[in-house]
Amino acid sequence: MTDTTALEAAAFRRLLAHLRERSDVQNIDLMIQAGFCRNCLSNWLQEAAEAAGTPMDKEAAREHVYGMPFAEWKARYQREATPEQLAAFEAAQRRHG
Question: How many domains does the chain have?
């Protein structure tokens, strides 16, 4: 019998590795295209940890997802959102809101 949880965990680890390799992809672009971003993943991880009885604060969850402290990732990779990105984000929010 296949252990679905192990498969899902492996897929999640692969997703995290992929997102860490693609530091050029901004969170706002992920939100526009997919409706979620690295911060969403960290929130979901934190919620899952707490539901399992394992306290995890926001910063620990973000560090797990980003592979480094969030402030460090932000300083290294996050760019200021362009007016075009902000407009696309607002339009996406209206479509999916």
Answer: 1
